[in-house]
Amino acid sequence: MVYECCGEKFEKEKEFKKHIRSRYWHRINYSTSTKVLLNRDEVFNIVKNPKLIFGISNLIIPIDQKRAILYLPFKRIKTGTILKRAIIGNLEGPKLDFDMLEYKFNSDKLVYEISFRLKRLTEDQTEVYILSSMAVNIGILGRIMPSEVIKALQSIVTPEILAENLVSNIKSL
């Protein structure tokens, strides 16, 4: 298995654990793109609306102008399960930075950054580039027990899951 963190790839778990022990903050990045049969202005109006773009992702849900809830995946879904697998954080954006529309979800030890870049291909076709990154502070326990960090990464929304979820929902528009 290949591990990737902070822009580096690790072939062996032992190397990856050594990297985990080396610092508190770690970053995972992912990017993808998709073509949609909508003109650029229509796609821009969808992407600049946080309730719409995150509502269709069903992962980060804005609850007011500044806060949002990040739902974490369940290991098992059973009827009657109490929903306590969520993180509340601040949602910033959309911010226009050159040709990128950016959002940031921040909850003390977990930060997601999601950026959208739109490219007009034809009058009725747009390419949507999605850049997603996650920074996480693993704390002292994470540095002492890197195996627990690896286990926790399997139950969190990674930038790849977030970006691919957005792509599949944007494609369905």
Please write the string of helix (H) and strand (E) elements: EEHEHHEEEEEEHHH
Number of domains: 1
CATH architecture classification name = 2-Layer Sandwich
Q: Please, what is the CATH homologous superfamily?
A: START domain
Descriptive overview:
- The protein is α+β, with helices and mostly antiparallel strands and about 170 residues long.
- It has a single domain (about 25-135, about 155-170), classed as Alpha-D-Glucose-1,6-Bisphosphate, Chain A, domain 4 (2-Layer Sandwich), CATH 3.30.530.20.
- Helix content is about 30%, strand content about 40%.
- It has a seven-stranded antiparallel sheet.
- Helix 1 packs across helix 5 and helix 3 packs across helix 6.
- It is globular.
- About 20% of the residues are buried.
Topology at a glance:
Blueprint: E1 3-5, E2 8-10, H1 13-21, E3 25-36, H2 40-47, H3 50-57, E4 60-62, E5 67-71, E6 86-97, E7 100-107, E8 110-122, E9 125-137, H4 139-144, H5 146-153, H6 159-171
Antiparallel strand pairs: 1-2, 3-9, 4-5, 5-6, 6-7, 7-8, 8-9
